[in-house]
Amino acid sequence: DKPISSNFIRNIVIADLESGKHKEIITRFPPEPNGYLHIGHAKSITLNFELADEFNGRTHLRFDDTNPTKEEVEYVESIKEDVKWLGFQWEALYFASDYFEEMYNRAVLLIKKEKAYVCDLSVDEIRQYRGTLTEPGKESPYRNRTIEENLDLFERMRKGEFKDGEKVLRAKIDMTSPNVNMRDPVIYRISHTSHHNTGDKWCIYPMYSFAHPLEDAIEGITHSICTLEFEDQRPLYDWFVRECEMEHQPQQIEFARLNLTNTVMSKRKLKKFVDENIVDGWDDPRMPTISGLRRKGYTPDAIKSFCRAIGVAKNNSVVDEQMLEHFVREDLKLKVPRVMAVIRPLKVVITNYLEGQVEWLDAENNSENPELGERKIPFSREIYIESDDFMEEPPKKYFRLFPGNEVRLKNAYFIKCNEVIKDDQGNVVELRCTYDPETKSGTGFTGRKVKGTIHWVEASNAMPAEIRLYEPLILDDEEEEGDTFLDNVNPNSLEILQGYVEPNMKEAMPQDKFQFFRHGYFNVDTKYTTKDRLVFNRIVSLKSSFKI
Ligand code: ATP
Ligand code: MG
Ligand code: MG
Predict the structure, then answer these.
(1) Which of 51, 55, 233, 523 shows a CA-CA span of 20 to 30 A to 361?
(2) What is the reported pTM?
(3) Together in a domain, 93 and 229
C-alpha cells in the first residue's frame, strides 16, 4: 500500500543482495538521547525502517548514548514513543553504552598494535596541533609513548586517577593526512559524570567517531545510513572497523539531511526554545518535533507520505514547509468530519424567529465522503457568526453580511441584516437579522439566489472553545551557527481565541480531528483540554498555493 520509490541507497541494497554480499539487510536508527526527535529524524526513521522491511530485513533502534553530560532517560522514553507512534516496530532495543566494555577492549587492542596512545595535550592544544585543510598537523609530544606506558595510563584513566581533560586516548593514524579527521582523532575522554544507563561505572567515555562504527559492527548492521556531514569521516569509520579487527564490516552511506523553510532543525537549538520558555515544552505545537507535530494534529501517515515524497538525495536542499502541510491536508480530507466553529464570534439575533424554540437541522459530516454520515445541528433565535463575515461598509464584491444584504447560513436559512448594535466605543456587538423560513436548506428553494454562504453556531447550545492558531516560530530561513536564531522568533507564532463550536463536540477527545468549515483542520489539544473546556490547535489552514 505504500509507494516505493527507487533511490540510490535502495539500489546499493539490491546489488548487495544480488551479489550475495549480504543475506539479510540490517539497518539502524541511532539517535543520541539528548533531546526529542524532530521531522528530520522522521526522514531517517522512515528510510531505515522501510528499506529493511522491503527486503524482509530488520532495523535496530539504538540509543547512541556515549555522552553522559547531555543524555537523559526522559529523552530515551520520548524517542521510543515517537518511533512507535510513527508506526515502526524495532526488532530489538540497543544501547551503545551496553558495549562500553567491548569498546574499551578494542581500544586496548589498538594500543597493543601501536595504533593508539594516551595524550596529555589540552583540548585547545590538540586543535592547534591538528592543523587545517591547507596546513599539515604537528605530532603530539606524547605520540611515541611505549605500549606499556600507554596501557598503564589508559587503565589508570579508567580507574579515575585523572581529572576531566587531563588526558585523552587518541588513535595514531597520520598527522599529515589531507583528511583532517585522520589526524590522530581523540577516541576516549575523561568525564566524571554519571551515565543514565551505566551510572558511575565509567569515568572515561568513547568519542562518537570511534564508538559509532564499533556499534554498527557489533550489531551486524549492513548499511549504516547517516547524513552528508559524515562523508569525510567515512575513511575513519572504515579505519576503526579494520584496525579494531571487527568481524563484521558495515558500510556507511551518506544522504542529504532534511531542511525545512522557517524551521530550526537541531536538537540543541530546539532545546533552547524549551529552556528559554519560548514554547511550552518539546511538544509545543509550534515545534518541528515529532511530539509537537503530533500535538498539533499531524498524523503518522501524513509524516511518512511526506518523507517518502521528498526522497533520498546526495545534495543538501531546503524543502518548503508547505509540502509537509500538503500531506496532512491530503490525509485528513476524507477522514475527518467537517463541522462549524466560530473563532471570532459576533452575536446575531433573528428577530422573526420564535423565542425559546430550537429546531434541529440536518448536516452532512463530509461532503466528499458520505460514509462519514450525517449529524443534527441546532438552530434558534440567537446564533454566532464570524465577525469577519460582517462589514458595516463593505467594499465592492463583498458578498457576506452587511446592512440590507442577505446571505445563506450553511445548512440553515437565508438571513438578512436589518440593524447593527454597537457599544459605547462604537464596536459592533450584535446584529439584528430576519430569516426567511422558505429558504431552508435541503428543501430545494429556488425563489432567489444569494452570493455568500457563511458558517455559524447556535448560541444556547454552543460549546465554548479555545482556538489556537499558529505561525512559524522563526521568521528567517537561514540556519545559523550561533544562537542568533533566537532574535528571529516570530512574536505572532501563537494566537489564542475564544470561540464556539457545535454542541456535538461535547464528546470530542484529545487528538480528535475536525475540519472547521472555512478555517482549516483542527486537533483537540492533549495538554490544555479539560472535561469542560475544549482547546483546539489549528493543524493547517485549508488553502495552499503548494502543488506537488
Ligand atoms: P540534531 O543535529 O538535530 O541533534 P543529530 O544528527 O545530532 O541531529 P542524532 O540523534 O545523532 O541527531 O540523529 C539520529 C539519526 O537521525 C542520525 O542517523 C542522523 O543522521 C539522522 N538525522 C538527524 N537529523 C536529520 C535530518 N535533518 N534529516 C535526516 N536525517 C537526520
Ligand atoms: Mg548526532
Ligand atoms: Mg546534533
Answers:
(1) 523
(2) 0.95
(3) yes
Testing ligand 1's pocket by substitution, the residue of 45, 227, 481 carrying the most ligand atoms inside 8 A of its CB is 227
Query: CB under 8 Å to 77, separation ≥6 — which residues?
Result: none
Q: Which of 10, 267, 294, 408 is catalytic?
A: 267
Residue type, 306: F
Range of 455's domain? 338-463
Closest among 495, 496, 478 to 487, alpha carbons compared:
478
- pLDDT tens for 95-145 read 999 999 999 999 999 999 999 999 999 999 999 999 999 999 999 999 999
For the domain that residue 168 is a member of, what is the CATH number?
A: 3.40.50.620
490, part of any domain: no
* C-beta of 32 in contact with ligand 1 (< 6 A): yes
Instruction: Report the nearest-CA residue for atom 27 of ligand 1.
Output: 40
288 lines ligand 1 (CB under 6 A): no
Q: Closest ligand to 41 CA?
A: 1
Q: Which three cell numbers stand for residue 140?
A: 603530539
Q: Are strands 382-386 and 456-458 parallel, antiparallel or unpaired?
A: antiparallel
pLDDT at 544: 73
Question: Which ligand places an atom closest to the C-alpha of 257?
Answer: 1
Q: How far is the CA of 34 from the centre of ligand 2 (A)?
A: 9
| Same domain as 243, residue 95 | yes
Tell me: do 249 and 345 sit in the same domain.
no
Split at pLDDT 50, 70, 90, the class of 484 is confident
Compute the average pLDDT of residues 39-60.
Answer: 97
Domains in the chain, number = 2
User: Does residue 31's CB lie within 6 angstroms of at least one atom of ligand 1?
Assistant: yes
The torsion angle over the Cα atoms of residues 72, 78, 84 and 86, rounded to 10 degrees, is -120
Residue 186 and residue 168 in contact, taking contact as beta carbons nearer than 8 Å: yes
In a domain, 329, yes or no: no
Residue 294 within any structural domain of the chain: no
